[in-house]
């Protein structure tokens, strides 16, 4: 069935208006939030995978598996919301996080476990603050709801980190 050029133009215009509206509901702070926490989340996934493979203590391996799983799901959700809002989502770690990950890859034993817990605590505190701010003052309703829910996950992970590793024994 042949579509009329007028109908196709109307469909295209409606799609463009919807995309423009989505972009309008995203502030510079929303974009900065996505940029920041997408990097932190990717780092947590990669570091969690590393800990599950190279952790010395079983609780570090288990915690790494949890981090990789949870933040993988969180990252997928954020990527979907960001895409719908017209926000570019990175697919690689920035140089700072990559250097940090590379440094941790070179470690082993209890020194790796301690460095892992410390790195995870630091990123969870930073990202937790970003989630709390976005939940309170973000302009995009989907990002606000995402931030509110994810902040609870970050807080739970911080509690788990305090019980992990050689220093907790």
The number of helices is 6
Give the helix/strand class.
Answer: mainly alpha
CATH class: Mainly Alpha
Query: From N to C, what is the helix and strand string?
Result: HHHHHH
The total strand number stands at 0
Fourth CATH level, the homologous superfamily: Ferritin, core subunit, four-helix bundle
Mean pLDDT: 87
Distance between the termini: 71 Å
Any guess at the CATH architecture?
Up-down Bundle
Q: What percentage of amino acids are in beta strands?
A: under 5%
**Major sheet:** none
Radius of gyration: 20 Å
Tell me the domain tally.
1
| Shape verdict | elongated
Signal peptide: 1-22
Protein name: DUF4142 domain-containing protein
Domain DUF4142: 29-160
Keywords: Signal
